[in-house]
Structures are given as C-alpha cells and as structure tokens.
Amino acid sequence: MLEVKQVSKLYENQRGVHGIDFSMTRGEIVGFLGPNGAGKTTTMRMITGYLNPTHGSISIDGLSMADHPKKARQKIGYLPETPPLYPEMSVRSYLQFIADLRGIPVKEQKHRIGEVIDRLGLQGRERQIMRSLSKGYKQRMGLAQAILHNPDLLILDEPTSGLDPKQIIEIRQLIRELGENHTVLLSTHILPEINTLCNRVLIINQGRIVMDGHPDRLGQSMGETFEVSLEVKGPREAVLAELRSLPQIASVKPLADVTAAAEPAAEPPAALQPPPLEHGAPEPGVGAGAQEPADAMPAAWLAKPSTVAEPTVRVLVSATDRADIREAIFYRMAELRYPILAMQKESLSLEDIFLKLTTNEAIDPEASAAGGGDPASDVSVPGTNAIDKEVDPHA
Ligand SMILES: Nc1ncnc2c1ncn2[C@@H]1O[C@H](COP(=O)(O)OP(=O)(O)OP(=O)(O)O)[C@@H](O)[C@H]1O
C-alpha cells in the first residue's frame, strides 16, 4: 500500500529526516511516535506529496509520488495537525467545496457528502458555520475532508491533540472505525493511543526510525527478559529456595520487606477441611507428591485456605531464555500449599521503551540493534543510513 524507501529531507542546512524506510500493508493502523522535532510531520508531508524528499522515493499502491503526484494523492486523505477549515463556511458548503476540489463527479457528490456526514456524526449540523463548531467537531470536519474522496490511505497528524477526554474517546472510536476499511498512519504524542488503536508502531527520533513493531512486542526486541512478580504466602526461606530450584529460573530477587507474620488463621469450616488422606498417601508437598503434576492434587486441598499463619513473600523471578515460567511456579506453589496471592508478568511499558529510545543525546544504532536480538520477533530496530548532504531545491 505504502512504500517509503530511504527517504531523507534536508531543510536548508538543517536535517529534517534521514533514510526513512518502511512500508505499510493494506488494513494496518500504524502509530507514528516521536518527541517534538523528531520528523513526524516532515515524513507525513512527504508521504502526502506536500513536500518533496531530498532523497529517496515514496509510492502509494505502486504509484510513485514523484512521477504521478496527482494520481498518488487521490489515494491519500490527510488530516494535518490543524484541520484546513474555512471558518465562515457551513459544514455542507465546505464539504461541497472539498468534493469539487477532489474532483468527485457532480452526480456522486450529494450521496458521498451524505455518507460522510452520517459516518462522522455531523447530522443536524449541515448548516452550522464552522467557526461555531467545538474543537471536537472541527476535528470531525478535518476527518470528513480527509475521507470524502474515499482514499485508501489516511495520514492523520495528531488527530486528538487539544481535545477534551470525551472528544478524544469519540475521535479514537471514529479512527478505529475508519481503520476497518482504510490503511491509517497516525502520529501522536499520546502513548496509550498507540496501544488502543494501533497494531504497529514506528518510533522516530532525531530524524531516524529507531523502532518498528507490534506495540506489545517492542520490549522483547530491546532484550527484555521474562520476569514475574509474585506474592506468595509461605515461609520465606522455603518459598525462595523452592522458586530457585525450579527449572529455567535465572534469579529470584526478594522485593520490599515481607509483611509481618499474620495472626493465626482461624480453623476453616468443616466443609473446607482436607479430605482424610488414604492410607500411605504422602502429605501434600512431601516426597513424590511434590513432583507430581497438578492433576494429582485433590481439588479440595487447593480450595482449602491455609491454616498456618505465614508471612507474605514478595519476589521478582526472572527466567532464562525468556521462558514463560508462570505455570511451573503456579503448580509448584500449589503442591506445597503456599498460596499465590498475586502473580504479574512484568514488561517494559511503551512509555519505558519510548523514553529509552528517545532520551539519549545521540542514538547508537549498533547498540540498539544489538539489543534487538530476537530473530523470531516481528520488531525491527533499523540501522542508520548515510546522511544526505544535498540541499533540497524544493525546501
Ligand atoms: N520548514 C522548515 N524549515 C526548516 N526546518 C524545519 C522545517 N520544518 C521542520 N523543520 C525541522 O525539521 C525537524 C523535524 O521537524 P518536524 O516538524 O517534522 O518534527 P515533528 O516530529 O513533527 O515535531 P512536533 O511533534 O513538534 O510536531 C526539526 O528539527 C524541525 O526544526
């Protein structure tokens, strides 16, 4: 759908972006994330044909933006950071104007405008002068002008910036719906927006793409290990020793102090008493029983609360080889009747990753690439490209 190949932009003597290289397939909603001045708007303006690259090429659905700008632009809808509205026009007359501008055949215009008005919830406001629209409705108008000619690709520059929380929710919902039949590239400063809307994120910093992948899998590509934080009720040293003895455990680090020993627990009601052990059966957690799989554990034991007052042990457990150790921990603690009160897989948040990638004074691509050592991951940490020295004649 979109191919951006080794695109650079040099403004006079100032670097805009360098060696931007990515593609998008139909149906993707891609978040474009970067700090101020990273190059998001520059990239988006080049994709939409408003700015010529100094180097590299852009094509939309196989159409080169340099060779066929008019046809290529027809395939794009663009919502700039500030929607291009004429405040004195009414909603309908503005859309009529855009329809003419976009070359929508006259006989189709009425139907198309009606569709867009419905889609963006503008019914009843057709005659309203745009100056009097709220910021959220102005943003809807911006989206309306972007989709009126039914483009395949939508480029949205900070579509929720400056909106109140209710408007943000509404515009996000609209973008989600538009994503059902459009390919969308949207820039944002709002990290949760990426998690709620996008199935892929591109992070740009200092004019270069420094990360490309699924929002949930970026941590892996940065060498993140598999870690689980745990709260277990049981004797501290025994819990630590048992966890350390499990396979594929790299480390078990006690977290903040354990809680003081609890008051002796009341005897459980008779209904929850463990069933009498059969003659010769091992005590729970003792001998061969401790090694047996979960289906060897009587269900009533698992349901029964501990009768022994024990402290709560809080630990951070790391796995070797990014193994998912949660089930092994669960079954072992259950066998020993050390109740797990909480178990949480720890991972780098998008915010952690963003800060790691964008707060360095200068990016060391080799170091980043070395961190991104997961060949199975669909996340990539692009390397650098030669910086163009040419000055753009179109700048
Ligand atoms: N017309 C211009 N002339 C000269 N330099 C420019 C021009 N437009 C942008 N730049 C520079 O190019 C770099 C990238 O700017 P750009 O606006 O693309 O970043 P951005 O990621 O969109 O930032 P923001 O989030 O603040 O909008 C910045 O260093 C900026 O100063």
TrEMBL record:
Residues 260-293, 365-395 are annotated as: Disordered. InterPro entries: AAA+_ATPase, ABC_transporter-like_ATP-bd, P-loop_NTPase. Residues 260-270 have a biased composition (Low complexity). PROSITE patterns: ABC_TRANSPORTER_2. GO terms for molecular function: ATP binding. The lineage of its organism: Bacteria, Bacillati, Bacillota, Bacilli, Bacillales. Belongs to the ABC transporter superfamily. SUPFAM superfamilies: P-loop containing nucleoside triphosphate hydrolases (SSF52540). Pfam families: ABC_tran. It comes from the Bacteria. Residues 2-231 form the ABC transporter domain. Keywords: ATP-binding, Nucleotide-binding, Transport. The keyword Repeat does not apply. Coiled coil: none annotated. This is ABC transporter ATP-binding protein.
